[in-house]
């Protein structure tokens, strides 16, 4: 940590709140939470121990979800039915991952995960944003029975664009795998939820991001409770993070409605590539 920040608590907390606001904005915009920015910043720049950084990151995810979820639901950007249905798979997957974590060597999983993320980035970059052409989406009986189809304000004049959800069973399976991988590798499942909804279920990228943001707050609350009981959440660290992320998430929720789906898709693809490279490096190092 910089010597000035180490000896001036107010400067430390102000700097932390500013960076957290940026993390909150991107977290709300992409449906990932702010951990992918906060953890590297806290550990590499601020010199915070990794377990306390993870604890603060969990608080940031809850703050991101809480700050943006209400706005997304109010604007009809979030598909609540899809979120509740998909949470079944994610929660069961997380429980499975925790149960088998001590029996599986994760070294090879890093490389596999890196390849999957790279493929997801390529597939997301190729796909064009939906424009309400419902005939292009294959029919799905389960999605019809659960009434997962909806509409969102995505036109030039904020008009409502209808969309259909498909392959609900495949989406549930992918959410289960996302929960498993998240628990095994210690990463946020949002990085997998958005591509699963976007690619497998053909949900528009804006709705996928908003729905993922709604979901991550629910799943992260349980983990945050465990970290709090362990004493790994420091109020002096988590407080500025929560404040900054809450402010930033409000900005991110507004940007989602104003930015085009293609812009959001390109930003998300860049994040996927960066995380894919990080996972690949970890995988190679684990075999050394």
Round the mean pLDDT to the nearest integer and report it. Answer: 80
Protein structure class: mainly alpha
How many distinct helices?
12
β-strand number? 2
Biggest sheet statistics = 2 strands, antiparallel
Give the neighbour order of strands across the main sheet: 1-2
Shape: globular
- What's the oligomerization state? single chain
How big is the Rg?
19 Å
Amount of beta strand: under 5%
Number of domains: 1
List low-confidence stretches.
131-135
Helix content: over 70%
Distance between the termini: 30 Å
In sequence order, what are the helices and strands, one letter per element?
Answer: HHHHHHHEEHHHHH
What's the short version?
This protein is mostly helical and 288 residues long.
Explain what you see:
- The protein is mainly α and 288 residues long.
- Helix content is 75%, strand content 3%.
- The protein has one domain (3-286).
- Strands 1-2 form a two-stranded antiparallel ribbon.
- Helix 2 (9-30) packs across helix 10.
- It starts with a helix and ends with a helix.
